[in-house]
Amino acid sequence: MDGMTPNDLSHVVDADRAHVWHHLVQHKPFENGEPRIIVEGKGMRVWDQHGKEHIDAVSGGVWTVNVGYGRESIANAVRDQILKMNFFGGTVGTIPGALYAEKLIGKMPGMTRVYYANSGSEANEKAFKMVRQISHKRYGGKKSKILYRDRDYHGSTLATMSAGGQDERNAQYGPFAPGFIRVPHCMEYRKHEQDGAPDENYGVWAADQIEEVILREGADTIGALCLEPVTAGGGVITPPEGYWDRVQEICKKYEILLHIDEVVCGVGRTGTWFGYQQYGIKPDFVTMAKGVASGYAAISCCVTSEAVFDLFKDDTTDPMNYFRDISTFGGCTAGPAAALENMRIIEDEDLLANTVAMGDHMVNNLWALSERHKVIGDVRGKGLFVGAELVTDRATKDPMHEKMVGQVVADCMQQGVIIGATNRSIPTKNNTLCFSPALIATKDDINQITEALDGALTRVFG
């Protein structure tokens, strides 16, 4: 592995244990055990400090490495660009920034402007700030509330957590910013838990619940509605039929801007360039990050329609008349350079079509497993973004305890297969296994992943 000796790697492990604060991890066990170090990646596979090979079914652990590991052409594109011009603040343009914006907008009919930042949380905050400034410029500050959905996730900053529909992620971090209002989820599998939910036309009913919140709060106070096209970390929840059509009717009726968070679904994950394109959505804002450059460089984008952009055009002498925001590392050129090459790979290798085909294969494999494992209550997803919800009883749909779900994930890891799961996010509902392999996945890769799951379910549940 890159010429490193066992002694070199032992030092790396010691340095990591002594000095690195890992994300989402309790470090107490590292006092007597080793943190895992990922040393190398190629294609769909990664190797740890012990040389053990793993197939990665979650694209870098957090749904990011869409075109797989070890892409030399992306590394070369980044190297060439940063040697020529590595950074300049976003008050001016750069060559890759202009060219990627043009390329990206070409995939997003109806959208015209790209605002660069460096994380999904930051991209979402940009949209929130735009909504708030529009409220002050056009509505005297009144139309400032932002609606968000139960189970959706929009980031880890205090503002994005204020719009976070996952209570366990938010626990211990309040108080939060005012003006963020929650609307109900649209999870058809769990509609029995929602008072008044009908057996038919649930999607329209679920959207109507948003309208009820709008009317309660006052439509003239609502500036935007922020939703994921497919709820990601909240359980891989695909929208029910009729939901998005009704949501858009409601937004148009009350002049509410529609903000689609594509941080997970964007750039091919669902089998179209963006998840919202699966459902005929016409957004005002689209935010994206993870798959934009497949993790080869940090980049995020807040994309807007020209109508939104025009709200910030102003030729008055008012010194407060422009969007007064900057992202320091939004001025890095490595991100758009990597993103350009990432998009070329997806196009040239026809990875959108592969995502659809392999996603269907994964869903079929999981439903086949459900015939043998009654703990699988539901399988859902879009493209290579798939969830399998584990339950203790299919009739009652009682959720499997998070500890048992964790045992399944751990068993797969022991087999050399990395899968994900909802984790300390939704109280009593952290029971969905999550699969998001790279868009390059083959049938053999998918079969290896689901075969490992088959063995894990057998060992954990019998």
Automatic annotation (TrEMBL):
CDD domains associated with the record: OAT_like
Pfam families from the UniProt entry: Aminotran_3 (PF00202)
Superkingdom of the organism of origin: Bacteria
Record keyword Transferase present: yes
GO molecular function, one term: transaminase activity
Cofactor(s) essential for the protein: pyridoxal 5'-phosphate
Keywords: Aminotransferase, Pyridoxal phosphate, Transferase
Residue ranges the record marks as coiled coil: none
InterPro entries linked: Aminotrans_3, Aminotrans_3_PPA_site, PyrdxlP-dep_Trfase, PyrdxlP-dep_Trfase_major, PyrdxlP-dep_Trfase_small
Protein family: Belongs to the class-III pyridoxal-phosphate-dependent aminotransferase family.
Protein known as: Aminotransferase class III-fold pyridoxal phosphate-dependent enzyme
